[in-house]
Amino acid sequence: MSSSNLNMYAGAFLGTVFVMMTVGILGEAIFHSETPEQEGFAIAVSEGGGGTESAAAAAPTVEPVSPLLASADPAKGEKVFKKCQACHTGEEGGPNKVGPNLWNIVNRPVASHEGFKYSTAMTDFAAGGTVWDYEHLNLFTHKPKDEVPGTAMGFAGLPKIQDRADLIAYLRTLSSDPAPLPDPNAAAGSADAAPAATGDATQQ
């Protein structure tokens, strides 16, 4: 190979190296970014128990039924009760079905109806002498599984307070000696401390 060819190849090689170095230098200058002093992102967290307080404030509360019972309509409640009849009877001495008989249910101790096998969740709820007073019935018929987590009751519940008031007014009539109506101005303190009841009244 002649010396002129060697010089030509050498020149082409050096030219290529020079171009690559130039491109690298220019790229570094254009796209260079400073290394941050601390890697990652800082997440600001407010001090104090605000999160818990906000969650508590956002938790929905169930409107007490006591102020509505004096004017509630048992006849309308009997129509609402038809939703419960697939699982319950209401007459005196009536049989148990999927749920217990509901005769004399108002102020009856929870999970106490003779001959009915209650779920563990309901018997736990009954611990301490819980009774089906008006506000416990209100909470239970609102959302049974919220009131008694793990209950066997499949009823979704009654979201409307007036439907619950009418139903409870009807349940009150299922007795030879109906329980007295509550003071409509009294605070529903017992419901706040009460565990749950089952929506359609199945596990009472």
Task: Please give a structural write-up.
- Helices cover 43% and strands 0% of the residues.
- It has 204 residues and is mostly helical.
- The protein has a domain at 65-193: Orthogonal Bundle (Cytochrome Bc1 Complex, Chain D, domain 2), CATH 1.10.760.
- Helix 4 (74-81) packs across helix 8 and helix 6 packs across helix 8 (161-173).
- The protein is rod-shaped, with a radius of gyration of 36 Å.
- The termini are far apart.
Number of strands: 0
What is the CATH level 1 assignment of the domain at 65-193? Mainly Alpha
In N-to-C order, the SSE pattern is HHHHHHHHH
- Round the mean pLDDT to the nearest integer and report it: 79
What is the CATH fold-level name of the domain at 65-193? Cytochrome Bc1 Complex, Chain D, domain 2
Tally the helices: what do you get? Answer: 9
Question: What percent of residues adopt helix (DSSP H or I)?
Answer: 40-55%
Low-confidence stretches: 48-57, 187-202
Shape: rod-shaped
* Rg, nearest Å: 36 Å
CATH architecture designation of the domain at 65-193: Orthogonal Bundle
Sheet with the most strands? none
- What percentage of the residues does DSSP assign to strands (E)? under 5%
Structural category is mainly alpha
Distance between the termini: 106 Å
CATH superfamily heading of the domain at 65-193: Cytochrome c-like domain
